[in-house]
């Protein structure tokens, strides 16, 4: 149930009853003395009507119908409305239950998209885990999600790679370490002129659809993709082979893209290349930045492929929304692609195209995250280290842990910590990757939330209570109980914002606040030692907290354990 939307609708209905013109913006209150929610909008409406805002607020409250949802509305400061939720309303909330969207959409989510010439590295980690969280939330809300893994599986570097592969055909293991393979091929390419020529010929053969070249290419792609799939599985990311729609999938569509741009009169030849110049992409000096769609040698570009992809997603997949998760450096690329696609009619205004950029992952030195030796960090190595460190952490808390259990905990906590560290930062900013901070039980971390979950589980264990036998609902009475119940009720407000803005950190912040409110509640309100009815309602609140934590972490793609 979305509370903010309900409250703003009711307030806006009151506005229109009073002949006022305005919108209501409802926020959760960070301070209890401001009620559970605070609405803004009266001041602006009063100003427009040239009236005293507190007077207008009083009239709004007079006609406002919040039956069944709020028990009290107060005027605060210059004309804010402080809203207190009704006890019956809170008692009726289905904890951890995701409300279905009243307007389900078809949403294409373009994420992960590693370049298959090399091993997947940390640069694609953010796209993969942020995209996967948004996918999970959208699906839970009942949207039809079409995952598109737009892998880089085409381009001139494959000529070099395939030539090197065929020169080393005797070594069946040569692709086991893709990064090393790439480096060796590149070295040969740079040093050996004959090799260079053969590599160039291989590209031509590949593009001409030569059977042998295509077989080699397919073999290479399969091996490289299986490396990625291993990472997805370890990360518990919901991508599989069926979601791959790489650059190569658009090959046949590329000549048509250029033709259509030509027909629309959008193409200009510039130094032999085919370009689209749109007035809106002027540099500071007033020069227009072109979108190049075909090089002078006839080759197509990343942009051409993306234009074909927009058309496919819009017209074949019938997307209402297309979300692109890539790093912020591609912001101009997508702005241009979206503008050209609209101008050319590859998509229409019914399809929303949204670039969801993210910042870089930095090392302690504030520079792009690298190994000590200055090379790119392999994801597999990063995940190994996360598991190792997490296993050490659980061992330090509980030295007698069984080997198998410690390893399993190390996996769930270590992988969760890496994902959460990324998801909990506002995606648009750069962030510093810091092991000590993320693999810790203190602060806004996943180990903290996973631990909070096990603490609740241990209350049930100690009381020998099966949480399933408790009633689904209970009424909060005391203030710490109420504050907790209000937080539990706000789950879907958060999810709505996560889905519309593509911002997982809002869910992380929510879960952290939930765990914090649980701690305050638990400190103030004894559970197992209370009298039967008090104990029951507090147990229900504890279970609801656990259900919401588990569901929320699951939407982040992070697991829980019952014991640590
Ligand atoms: N492979 C690209 C890269 O690594 C990302 C692709 C993103 N998706 C797209 N439709 N361009 O930069």
Q: Mind explaining what this structure looks like?
A:
The chain is α/β, with parallel strands linked by helices. Among the domains are: 3-85, Gyrase A, domain 2, CATH 3.30.1360; 157-239, no CATH class. Helices cover 51% and strands 10% of the residues. The chain has 20 helices and 13 strands. It has helices spanning 3-17, 42-48, 53-63, 87-91, 123-140, 157-167, 178-191, 193-207, 211-235, 254-263, 302-316, 331-344, 379-397, 403-423, 435-438, 446-462, 479-489, 491-501, 505-524, 532-556; strands at residues 25-28, 37-40, 70-76, 80-85, 106-110, 144-148, 267-270, 273-276, 291-294, 321-324, 352-355, 361-362, 431-432. It has a four-stranded antiparallel beta sheet with strand order 1-2-4-3. The protein has a four-stranded parallel beta sheet with strand order 6-5-10-11, with helices on both faces. A three-stranded antiparallel beta sheet has the order 7-8-9. A hairpin with an 8-residue loop joins strand 1 and strand 2 (37-40). Helix 7 packs across helix 8, helix 11 (302-316) packs across helix 12 (331-344) and helix 16 (446-462) runs antiparallel to helix 20. It is globular. Arginine is lined by residues 110, 113, 115, 150, 152, 306, 309, 324, 326.
Helix-strand layout with pairing:
Layout: H1 3-17, E1 25-28, E2 37-40, H2 42-48, H3 53-63, E3 70-76, E4 80-85, H4 87-91, E5 106-110, H5 123-140, E6 144-148, H6 157-167, H7 178-191, H8 193-207, H9 211-235, H10 254-263, E7 267-270, E8 273-276, E9 291-294, H11 302-316, E10 321-324, H12 331-344, E11 352-355, E12 361-362, H13 379-397, H14 403-423, E13 431-432, H15 435-438, H16 446-462, H17 479-489, H18 491-501, H19 505-524, H20 532-556
């Amino acid at each position: 149930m979305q509370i903010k939307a309900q409250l703003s609708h009711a307030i806006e209905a009151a506005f229109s009853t009073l002949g006022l013109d305005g919108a209501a913006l409802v926020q959760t209150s960070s301070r209890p003395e401001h009620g559970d929610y605070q609405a803004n909008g009266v001041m602006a409406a009063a100003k427009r009507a040239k009236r005293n805002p507190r007077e207008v607020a009083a009239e709004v409250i007079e006609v406002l119908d919040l039956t069944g949802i709020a028990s009290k509305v107060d005027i605060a400061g210059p004309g804010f409305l402080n809203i207190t939720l009704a006890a019956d309303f809170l008692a009726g909330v289905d904890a951890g239950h995701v409300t279905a969207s009243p307007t389900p959409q078809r949403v294409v989510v373009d994420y992960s998209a590693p370049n298959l010439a090399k091993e997947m590295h940390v640069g694609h980690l953010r796209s993969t885990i942020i995209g996967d969280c948004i996918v999970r939330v959208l699906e839970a809300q009942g949207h039809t999600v079409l995952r598109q893994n737009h892998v880089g599986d085409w381009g001139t570097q494959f000529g070099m790679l395939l030539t090197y592969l065929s020169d080393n055909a005797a070594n069946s293991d040569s692709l086991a370490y893709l990064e090393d393979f790439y480096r060796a091929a590149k070295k040969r390419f740079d040093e050996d002129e004959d090799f260079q020529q053969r590599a160039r010929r291989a590209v031509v053969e590949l593009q001409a659809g030569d059977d042998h070249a295509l077989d080699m290419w397919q073999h290479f792609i399969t091996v490289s993709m299986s490396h990625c799939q291993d990472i997805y599985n370890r990360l518990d990311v919901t991508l599989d082979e069926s979601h791959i729609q790489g650059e190569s999938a658009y090959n046949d569509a590329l000549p048509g893209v250029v033709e259509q741009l030509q027909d629309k009169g959008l193409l200009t030849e510039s130094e032999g290349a085919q370009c689209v110049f749109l007035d809106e992409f002027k540099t500071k000096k007033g020069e227009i930045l072109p979108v190049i769609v075909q090089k002078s040698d006839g080759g197509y570009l990343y942009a051409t492929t993306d234009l074909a992809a927009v058309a496919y997603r819009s017209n074949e997949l019938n997307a209402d929304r297309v979300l692109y998760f890539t790093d912020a450096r591609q912001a101009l690329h997508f702005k241009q692609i979206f503008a050209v696609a609209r101008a050319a009619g590859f998509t229409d205004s019914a399809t929303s195209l949204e670039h969801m950029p993210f910042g870089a992952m930095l090392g302690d030195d504030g520079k792009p995250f690298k190994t000590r030796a200055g090379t790119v960090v392999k994801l597999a190595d990063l995940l190994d280290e996360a598991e190792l460190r997490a296993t050490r952490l659980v061992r330090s808390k509980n030295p007698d842990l069984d080997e198998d259990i410690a390893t399993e905990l190390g996996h769930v906590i270590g992988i969760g910590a890496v994902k959460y560290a990324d998801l909990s930062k506002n995606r648009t900013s750069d962030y510093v990757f810091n092991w000590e901070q993320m693999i810790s039980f203190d602060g806004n971390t996943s180990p903290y939330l996973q631990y909070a979950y096990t603490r609740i589980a241990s209350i049930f264990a100690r009381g020998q209570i099966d949480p399933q036998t408790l009633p689904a609902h209970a009424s909060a009475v005391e203030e710490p109980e109420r504050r907790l119940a209000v937080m539990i009720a706000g789950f879907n407000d958060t999810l709505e914002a996560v889905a519309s803005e593509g911002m997982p950190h809002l869910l992380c912040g929510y879960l952290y606040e939930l765990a914090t409110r649980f701690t305050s509640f638990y400190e103030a309100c004894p559970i197992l030692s209370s009298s039967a009815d008090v104990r029951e309602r507090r147990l229900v609140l504890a279970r609801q907290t656990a259900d919401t934590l588990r569901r929320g972490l699951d939407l982040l793609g992070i697991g829980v354990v019952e014991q640590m």
